[in-house]
Amino acid sequence: MLDREETDHYRLKAFALDLGGTTLEDPTDLEIIVVDQNDNRPLFQQDVFTGHVVEGAEPGTCVMKAEATDADDPETDNAALRYSILEQGSAGMFSINATTGEICTARPGLDREVADMSGDGLATTAAAVIYLEDINDNPPEFTKEEVAVGHGAGAGRGAGCCRGGPRMP
To answer: Taking the alpha carbons of 147, 151, 152, 153 in that order, is the dihedral positive or negative?
Structure first.
C-alpha cells in the first residue's frame, strides 16, 4: 500500500523492448508523486495543558498555547489545523485563536479540540486546566464596629484589642 508519509515519490526508469528483448528506444525517467490522503489525526504535544491567570486579568490576556501537529502533507489542507474550545466551566470566559491555539481571557477545566481542515477532518482532544490566581484586592474588615477606650489611656499605651480579616466578596 502506498503511504505518502512513508514515501512521497518514486523514480522509475522505463524503456520499450520488442518481443525479442531488443531495446527500441532510450530509457526515460518517470516520477510518480504520491498524493496525500487525510489519514492522520492531529496530535497534541501533551495530554493536559496547564496555565495560570490572575483574577481581574484584562480580556485578551493570553494564558497558554495549545500545540498540535499533523503528519499529513503540510502543503495541503490535510495538515492545516483549526483549534476550538469544546467546553468550559464558565461559558465565554476564555477564547482560543483558531489558527495559533493561543487561549486567552475573553471575560476571565476546559476542553478544546483541534481538527484538520480537509473535508469533515479528523479530530483529537486534550484538556486545558487554567488556575485563577488570587491577588490581594480586598481590604481587611474589623470584626467589631466600635472599640471602647477608657479616660485614663495615655499616648503609646494599648487602648483595646480588635481583630480583622480579609473581606470576601
So the answer is: positive
Find the domain containing 56 and state its range. 43-133
DSSP one-letter code for 74: T
Total domain count, the chain: 2
Do 54 and 123 fall within a single domain? yes
Is residue 22 situated within a structural domain? yes
Of all residues in the chain, the percent with pLDDT exceeding 90 is 47
Give the ranges where 83-137 is alpha helix by DSSP (H).
none
> Are the C-beta atoms of residues 8 and 34 closer than 8 Å to each other?
yes
**Residue pair 1/13 in contact by the 8 Å Cβ criterion:** no
Question: For 132-157, b where at least 16 C-beta lie within 10 A, e where not — what string?
Answer: eeeeeeeeeeeeeeeeeeeeeeeeee
Q: Which residues pair with 65 in a beta bridge?
A: 102
Question: Would you say residue 163 lies in a domain?
Answer: no
Whether the predicted model's global pTM rises above the 0.90 cut: no
Q: Are residues 5 and 73 in the same domain?
A: no
Residue 154 lies in a domain: no
Is 112's pLDDT higher than 50? no
Helix then strand count (H, E) for the chain reads 0, 13
CA 146 – CA 164 distance, rounded (Å): 13
